[in-house]
Amino acid sequence: MSYQDLTGKVIVPKDPNYDEARTIYNAMIDKKPAVIVTCKTKADVINVVNFARDNNTEVSVRSGGHNGAGLALVDGGLVVDLSEMKAIAIDPLSKTVIVQPGNTLSDVDAATHEFGLALPSGIIGTTGIGGITLGGGLGYLSRKGGLTIDHLLECEVVLSNGNLVVANKDTNPDLFWALRGGGGNFGVVVSFKFSLIDIKNVYAGPMFWPIEQAEEAMVFYDTILKTASNDLYGFFAFLIVPPAAPFPEHLWNQNVCGVVWNYTGPIEKAEEVFKPIREFGTPILDFVSEIPMPALNGMFDALYPPGLQWYWRAHYIKELTPEAIKVNVTHGSKVPTMHSTMHLYPIDGVCHDVANSETAWANREARWAQVIVGVDPNPANAETITNWCKNYFDALIPHAMGGAYVNFMMNEGQERIKASYKDNYERLVQVKTKYDPNNFFHINQNIKPQ
Ligand SMILES: Cc1cc2nc3c(=O)[nH]c(=O)nc-3n(C[C@H](O)[C@H](O)[C@H](O)COP(=O)(O)OP(=O)(O)OC[C@H]3O[C@@H](n4cnc5c(N)ncnc54)[C@H](O)[C@@H]3O)c2cc1C
């Protein structure tokens, strides 16, 4: 069998669209696959998996292409490109949606919002539903609705032997457990079924404080989230104010700290909830108001178009101790370029109602997933953003839990993967050994079979 026999659109290096097809979100990644197969159907995926396995070809799996480490692509191998599998079927009566892996978070939002429903997921609309779900899924609705995997009801998966199987709580429950956090280790997921929550409009947006108030702002933020209901969400950030509307010109290019809030409780109570927040310090920007949920989910999409250089590192954080806050302020105040930033994403609220053993995602006792992101359009600044990121990350090691959210990890080695899955790692190895004994799917945060 040769490449010509494959179904799906086959793209090889001599094709004029090859460079476009191997371009992913992070422009720092420059991998050169031997072939990219753009699948349209489940049969295409089965065919490609069988072809690659029978020809001893390495494969990577691409959905949205957002993975920071570039795990959607493989040098010299075959990319199973799912980005054109974009069907979505919503059932507003059962409040469920079936999503193919080529959809982005914006696609899912657009389908669900029409019915006043939402899927808890991430904060940038262009992210692919495939990778974010299999790694966990953190975002504006985490405190109220949990992780994306907490809404996963069923997957259809093409295994390394080419079989298409269903995984849910009754059928292949071990696989279903592993898919909820274990990443792309077990097969190609060709369909996800999710439950949805009732969300239409929210009271949300960014609020900034001067960088000089960062230490007090972090303490205040920590305290308010500890006591607030799960209706209030906010991720803390260090950033540089973008030099563009709608930001006021006198703030352009200033280093500031801030929180992007999302309040999902009764709208008539929102002003009351935000009164103490607005009274803290001297907010220099307050864009918090009633907006549709998709407007919040897409708020930063224009600021982060595809094609920027990205380098990021991540931690799980249990406590924002005074020492940790000092480290954050020291490094966070020195965000090196306008797109670079640090975010602390809450993973408390209802995320804590699920035991670590219930899904492969093993860090429910954490209060935040922290990500330090060096971002810039200019490759000449790659070293600057990478060094800032690494130094900040290193300084936080004594204050972090060990391990990181796999969707925020670069290629950091096996020990770090084990540290991220903790007590669930051995069980993941067993599931991997059963469903992918030869480690056919290994271009990922890899769990090695026995
Ligand atoms: C700008 C930006 C914002 C982000 N914001 C958030 C956020 O708010 N919350 C959050 O949780 N994460 C966030 N992330 C991280 C994101 O979850 C990961 O980058 C994730 O891998 C993206 O999914 P994708 O489908 O786009 O990835 P891809 O790069 O296409 O795939 C990444 C890996 O996932 C696996 N994979 C993907 N699809 C499948 C599939 N269908 N079957 C089997 N394996 C598959 C494969 O191992 C693949 O290598 C963000 C990333 C970026 C770049």
Automatic annotation (TrEMBL):
Any GO molecular function: oxidoreductase activity
Q: Which UniProt keywords apply?
A: FAD, Flavoprotein, Oxidoreductase
Q: Required cofactors, per record?
A: FAD
Query: FAD-binding PCMH-type domain: which residues?
Result: 29-199
Residues annotated as coiled-coil are none
Q: Which residues form the signal peptide?
A: none
InterPro entries to which the protein is assigned, alphabetical: BBE, FAD-bd_PCMH, FAD-bd_PCMH-like_sf, FAD-bd_PCMH_sub1, FAD-bd_PCMH_sub2, FAD-linked_Oxidoreductase, Oxid_FAD_bind_N, Oxy_OxRdtase_FAD_BS
Q: Which domain of life is it from?
A: Bacteria
Instruction: Indicate the family of this protein.
Output: Belongs to the oxygen-dependent FAD-linked oxidoreductase family.
Q: What is this protein called?
A: Oxidoreductase
